[in-house]
Amino acid sequence: MPMAKTPVIAIVDDDEGVRTSLASLVRSIGYEAQAYESGMDFLRQTPGDDPACMIADVQMPVITGDELQAQLIASGRRFPIIFMTAFPSESVRRRVMAAGAHCYLGKPSSGDEIIRYLEEALAGHAP
């Protein structure tokens, strides 16, 4: 029987420090991390290679996290997205959650909290 493929977690954040720390957090619990510095950067990858889950910043130049989510949904690409933002807004939170986001976290969030939501998203449970 083939071994299950390690889940790939896409990390989309324009802050290199955040990308690096999230990638090492994700790898520390045994998942593969792929980091992207922008939503456009992520959209350029092959659609057939969708991640098991995405952790995305909301405030990013060119294309925001919620615009990225809208584009993915429009092109039929659906996977759990964990949004993180240093500037929480109730209207954005409502919009991304209504569009199917797994959760909407403020920054900074603890590693334990991120891991908990990530495990839930991969297991297909709502928070």
Distance between the termini: 32 Å
Query: What about the largest sheet?
Result: 5 strands, parallel
Structural class: alpha/beta
Strands, total number: 5
Shape: globular
Number of domains: 1
**The named CATH superfamily:** Response regulator
The whole-number mean of residue pLDDT values reads 93
Rg is 14 Å
As residue ranges, the low-confidence spans are none
The CATH topology comes to Rossmann fold
> Helix tally?
5
Strands in their spatial order, largest beta sheet: 2-1-3-4-5
CATH class placement:
Alpha Beta
Strand fraction: 15-25%
User: What share of residues is helical?
Assistant: 25-40%
CATH architecture: 3-Layer(aba) Sandwich
Question: What pattern of helices and strands is seen along the backbone?
Answer: EHEHEHEHEH
Please, could you describe this protein's structure?
The chain has 127 residues and is an alpha/beta fold. The chain has one domain (8-109): Rossmann fold, CATH 3.40.50.2300. It is 39% helix and 19% strand. The chain has helices spanning 16-28, 39-43, 65-74, 90-98, 111-123; strands spanning 8-12, 32-36, 53-57, 81-85, 103-106. The longest helix has 13 residues, at 16-28. The radius of gyration is 14 Å and the shape is globular. The protein starts with 7 loop residues before the first strand and ends with a helix.
